[in-house]
Amino acid sequence: MRKTQITIDVELDENHIPEKMTWNAEDGGVEKQETKATMISVWDDKAMEALRIDLWTKDMPLDQMKMFIHQILVSLGNTYERASGEADVAQWMEQMAEEFAIKSAIKM
Questions:
Q1: Do residues 36 and 17 make contact, with C-beta atoms less than 8 angstroms apart?
Q2: pLDDT surpasses 80 at 6
Q3: What is the pTM of this model?
Q4: Are 53 and 38 in contact (CB under 8 A)?
Q5: What is the mean pLDDT of residues 55-70?
Q6: Are 21 and 36 in contact (CB under 8 A)?
Q7: Boundaries of every domain in the chain
């Protein structure tokens, strides 16, 4: 059996707010790459719920956070379609992502 690791290092200020984050993915060739935000979800099949860690640095601009969330919404639709084959639901999710982009003023 082969193992691999993805890690995220978080530097906190005195108030425990993320100041700097870097991530590593040895199989992907990523080493100490800086990032301003991360969202990680894992499935707890016993509790039947998603567990999440959402972190962003205190200097992440709001316009970039909006773009980040928009891209996650688009990606969720793509992932849902690949997993379920339900193109109609995935298309609805994409439309929702586009509506978010308009309402959040990242798309006119």
A1: no
A2: yes
A3: 0.88
A4: yes
A5: 96
A6: yes
A7: 1-58, 61-108
